[in-house]
Write a structure and sequence with these properties.
Elements (H helix, E strand, L loop, with lengths): L1 E4 L2 E4 L2 E4 L2 E4 L3 E5 L1 H7 L4 E3 L5 E5 L1 E6 L15 H10 L1 H4 L4 H13 L2 E8 L5 H6 L3 E8 L7 H16 L6 E7 L7 H13 L4 E5 L3 H9 L3 H10 L8 H7 L6 E4 L5 H9 L3 E4 L1 H6 L14 E3 L12 H11 L5 H10 L3 H7 L14 E5 L10 H8 L5 E4 L2 E2 L2
Parallel strand pairs: 1-6, 2-7, 8-9, 9-10, 10-11, 11-12, 12-13, 13-14, 14-15
Antiparallel strand pairs: 1-4, 2-3, 4-5, 7-16, 16-17, 17-18
The structure holds zinc ion (ZN).
Zinc ion binds next to loops.
């Protein structure tokens, strides 16, 4: 048994002081250090620097490890030109090596991320994701709007997902990702959803990321019209917006971005039991706009997206960006909400038994040390987001990695 003590612990949305946590691979008991030492006299005591806070390990629900290199290759500022630059540089952007992806995992780990959802487009991140200390929900992606090669694209997906399923464990959970409504043929969408249902796998899809996507899916015009005509000789979208959303009606799905969804559409997603990932820095860099998080009733996570549309996978930095982006929401209320968007809520979204400091939960925890003594417990969420950058200690399944 181990005992971790710190000045503060984040428990059920509040910061409590004078408590400690007894844990092995799971959190067993939360009480004062003295009581825990009586209960477990042989426990190893882990102390922390003054002004430290124990949080549940942070969770990043959406990242693309395979696109971790070539930071100065892509064109930022507007979505369709960015997508064009990704496609024009496919050979460069899809040749990311293991050490670059391991660095990306390490950056996440040192910022306190103990679990992440990796979108795998090619399967080249499989070794890294099965070997990284974090828990990984591994979303095998299906993509391809060309009706002539539906079978080829499905075979590629099936080969990758079947291989990934061989590695299933408490630390590696295979799942399914549909790339998006504009890029995935309706037959592939249906087949991928069926596969997820039959195998009881989690499902994710990018949705309504940019204004151009909305225009293309609803009116078959705009920037995407020229893009598809030029690259694929196509003049009609692969799906209409509502047909696409409806295809996911009876399987709760983690939709990514949804920046351009209307209030009614956001309500519809919530009513169907879906969840949403909010990636503020990616949305800013690709000129997609601001997700009205004040209108989101569905479970909401904050995620970094990949390094192809971000400069860092540091999750605390992502919260800082969200804090600035949503300038109309009261500061302290938003800070607490954002902490929950990387702990309890994403744990629920990804079906992981972590994300909370509570007896019986997995001992996935990170320690964040504030630069000074907080004058009020109510301010700690804000101070954490404003003044910290790295975790002082990180535990996954009770084992210490930082
Ligand atoms: Zn993405």
């Amino acid at each position: 048994m181990n005992i971790l003590e710190a000045d503060y612990i984040y428990i059920e949305g509040e910061y409590v002081s004078h408590k400690a946590i007894a844990f092995d691979n799971k959190i067993r008991t939360i009480d004062t250090k003295e009581k825990l030492l009586e209960l477990y006299p042989n426990a190893i005591l882990h102390s922390t620097p003054p002004n430290s806070v124990i949080y549940p390990g942070f969770i990043n629900t959406h990242v693309h490890l395979e696109f971790s290199s070539n930071q100065t290759t892509l064109s930022y500022g507007s979505f369709v030109p960015w997508l064009g630059s990704v496609m024009a540089n496919t050979s460069k952007t899809s040749s990311c090596d293991d050490s670059t992806m391991q660095e990306a995992c390490k950056e996440m780990l040192t910022s306190g991320i103990t679990a992440f959802g990796a979108i795998s487009s090619h399967g080249i991140d499989l070794d890294v994701c099965t070997q990284t200390p974090q828990r990984v929900v591994y979303f095998n992606e299906i993509v391809g709007s060309n009706s002539n090669i539906v079978d080829i694209n499905y075979d590629s997906f099936e080969r990758r997902i079947k291989l990934s399923q061989k590695y299933t464990s408490d630390f590696f959970i295979p799942a399914v990702a549909v790339h998006s409504a504009y890029s995935t043929h309706e037959i592939l969408v249906k087949k991928a959803i069926s596969y997820a249902k039959e195998n009881q796998l989690l499902l994710s899809a990018h949705l309504l990321e940019s204004h151009s996507e909305r225009e293309w899916l609803t009116t078959a015009s705009g920037e995407f019209y020229n893009f598809y005509k030029k690259f694929l000789g196509v003049e009609k979208p692969a799906n209409t917006l509502y047909e696409f959303i409806k295809a996911f009606d009876d399987i709760p799905t983690h939709f990514i971005h949804c920046v351009q969804a209307t209030k009614e559409e956001l309500d519809m997603l919530a009513a169907k039991g879906h969840s949403i990932a909010h990636c503020p820095r990616s949305n800013r860099m690709l000129g997609c706009g601001r997700l009205s998080i004040e209108n989101v009733k569905a479970p909401l996570s904050v995620a970094t997206d990949g390094l192809s549309s971000n400069w860092s996978l540091n999750i605390i930095g992502e919260l800082r960006a969200a804090l600035m982006m949503h300038y109309d929401i009261p500061l302290h209320e938003l800070s607490l909400q954002l902490i929950n968007c990387i702990t309890s809520v994403p744990a629920e979204i990804l079906g992981l038994n972590c994300g909370m400091i509570a007896s019986g939960r997995l001992a996935d925890m990170c320690v964040i040390t504030l630069p000074d003594k907080p004058t009020s417990l109510k301010e700690i969420a804000l101070w954490t987001i404003l003044h910290t950058h790295k975790a002082t200690k990180v535990y996954i399944g009770g084992k210490q990695y930082v």
